[in-house]
Structures are given as structure tokens and as C-alpha cells.
Amino acid sequence: MPPSDAALPGAAPAGRPGLPAPPDATRPVDVLTVVSGADATPSVRRVLLAGTPAAAAAAGPTISLLVPRVGDPAPRWPAVARDGRIVWPAGAHGVSLRSYTARRQDPDRGEVEIDFVLHGDGPAAAWAAAAGPGATVAVAGGGPLGERPAGWLLLAGDETALPAITRILAEAAPGTRGLALVEVADVAEEQPLPAPAGVGVRWLHRDGTPPGEGTLLADAVAALDRPAGEDVFAWVAAESAAVRAVRADLRGRWGLGRAQHHAIGYWRRGRAMAPAG
Ligand SMILES: Cc1cc2nc3c(=O)[nH]c(=O)nc-3n(C[C@H](O)[C@H](O)[C@H](O)COP(=O)(O)OP(=O)(O)OC[C@H]3O[C@@H](n4cnc5c(N)ncnc54)[C@H](O)[C@@H]3O)c2cc1C
Q1: What global pTM score does this model have?
Q2: Phi/psi of residue 149, each to 5°?
Q3: Over the chain, what is the mean pLDDT?
Q4: What gap in Å lies between CA 139 and CA 164, rounded to an integer?
Q5: Which ligand 1 atom sits closest to the C-alpha of 123?
Q6: What's residue 159's pLDDT?
Q7: Which of 42, 139, 143, 230 could join 9 in a cystine, given CB atoms 3.0 to 4.6 angstroms apart?
Q8: CA end-to-end span of the chain
């Protein structure tokens, strides 16, 4: 999650097409409108958003999402500077910056679909739980998922990483081999996860252990032998401590170099990703 004044990956330069932008120019953020929301599972709310084709194309795969307070009919959105920094309005604005993943982007239809984990506290989870048709959210920029094609792929994550894992598997070459390990609360949280025939999918159930408190993901990776050869890539995203444990194992025991893995904490137990606006 970038801090509030961080440059955003993939942020478009400010200014009008064809004209050089002055150095201090900003561009408005892309505002998306909720079309519908549905429960993908008991704890995942799938929200369909509509915007211009350009906004839908720019909103992902990872998204710097600007989330207003629940029920705020006229959020005071920030702007985006030429270098990608978010320029916040002066005073209280009630908008929080959070990172999400576009599960699906369809620029032709101007659609973006996001799966929000309803984990309880938090401006983004609260917004998603309450958002009905017509509610708005904004996008400050998009970025890559960090995956790379490889002959053998390890994907390891929890429910916050499931949209990314879904996209990575959908785009993997048909001959890809490997394993996807997905930690969820229980069997009711499993989702259809199409994968190349050579990639196994294994669901890990917390079965009552609160998210971020167990070692399921790290234990599952620790039980895996390193596949032979160098054409191996591991993509890992989950609670930060779990990711740290898996990353250490993959760098140490598996000997993966920097170019062979992408491991990033998607959330931190007991800590908001950034202060609420
Ligand atoms: C690149 C990237 C992509 C992401 N994609 C997605 C996505 O597609 N869908 C998605 O749901 N999340 C995704 N996340 C994770 C999401 O950004 C965090 O869960 C974020 O903290 C949610 O913001 P919030 O305002 O709801 O809660 P915050 O205000 O950040 O946190 C409030 C409290 O909730 C706790 N908390 C936060 N997330 C969880 C959780 N998942 N389970 C249990 N407790 C939690 C925190 O520890 C804190 O105590 C992504 C993160 C990154 C970095």
C-alpha cells in the first residue's frame, strides 16, 4: 500500500492529451459508480463498478482505490500530480486510500469488478458492505500484479489474494505446471478457480482460527519440495507475517533469487493500511 503521498505505479501523467503539462499540474481521479453488489461467498462482497472505457482500462490489475465514508453523497476526492503523487484536498475529506485488485476489467463495457473481503473494521470493508447502486469510489492509479510467466508456478495467498491468483491462473500458458495454495476461512469461502491442467489447486481452511493468526500458508509451503530446474516463479500475497515466513523459506530452502519470486504483504494484522481520511 503506498503511503498517501507516494507515487502510484501506472498513474497517468497529468495534463491534456497533446499538450505538455505544467510541472505542478494535476489530473482528476477516475470516479467509478456502483452498478451492483453480490455475495461471492459469505465473507466476500463482489462489487461491479462502471466508468469510462479509459477508467476501466486504467483500474488494474492492482488498484490504488479511494474509498469515501459510508453514505457520503459528495466525497472530496484528491487529485493526482504529474509524478503520480496524490494531492489531497485541504482539511477533512473522509476519503481513505487502499489497495485492491480488479478481479475483472472490461474497458469495452466500462466495467471493473472487485472482490472485497468483509473482514469487519476498516473503511474499505465497511464501504463495500454498505455500497449500493449509485455509490461512488475513485481510482488514483493502477499497477501490475508482479507475476512472471514460468514453466513451474507457485501461487500462495489468502482470500485477499484470490482475485490476483484468479487472474494469474487465467492468463497462465496452458502448459504451465505448478500449485496454487489458497488459505480461506472454511469450505464455504472456496471459489471456482480455473487453472491450467498442470497446476493443482489446494484450499487451506483456517477452520475457526482468525485470519492472520495461524501458520497454514507457511506450513503448506514448508512441506513442498523445490521443483527441479530454474524455470520456477513464486507469487505470494497474504497477511504480512505469513508472507515474511513464506518468503524466507523460498529464498532460503528453495534458493529463489529476486527475479524468481514476488512476495508482498497485502494486509497487516491489527493495523490499518493507512490512516482513514
Ligand atoms: C496490491 C494489493 C491488492 C489487494 N487486493 C485486495 C482485494 O482484491 N480484495 C481484498 O479484500 N483485499 C485486497 N487487498 C488487501 C486490502 O488492501 C487490506 O485488507 C486493507 O487493509 C483493507 O482496508 P480496510 O479499510 O478494510 O481495513 P484497514 O483500515 O486497512 O484495517 C482495519 C483493521 O482490519 C484488519 N484487516 C485488514 N484486512 C483484513 C483481512 N483481510 N482480514 C482480517 N483483518 C483485516 C487490519 O489488521 C486492521 O486491524 C490488497 C492489498 C494489496 C497491497
Answers
A1: 0.93
A2: -65, 145
A3: 92
A4: 18
A5: 25
A6: 98
A7: 143
A8: 15
**Cβ of residue 127 lying under 6 Å from some atom of ligand 1:** no
What is the predicted pLDDT for the residue at 73? 84
**Topology of the domain covering 26-143:** Elongation Factor Tu (Ef-tu); domain 3 (2.40.30)
| Shortest-distance atom of ligand 1 to CA 96 | 25
Q: For the chain, what percent of residues have pLDDT higher than 70?
A: 90
Rounded Cα gap, residues 155 and 18, in angstroms: 41
Q: Please indicate whether residue 116, judged by its CB atom, sits closer than 6 Å to ligand 1.
A: yes
Q: Specify the pLDDT at position 22.
A: 58
CB-ligand 1 contact for 266 (6 Å cutoff) = yes
Q: Decide the pairing of beta strands 26-28 and 79-81.
A: antiparallel
Q: Is 269 in the pocket of ligand 1 (CB under 6 A)?
A: yes
Q: Angle at CA 68, nearest 5°, toward 67 and 69?
A: 125
Ligand 1 site, residue 161, Cβ cutoff 6 A: no
Selected from 1.10.486.10, 2.60.40.1840, 3.40.50.80, 3.40.50.2000, the CATH number assigned to the domain covering 152-267 reads 3.40.50.80
Ligand 1: centre distance to CA 266 (Å) = 7
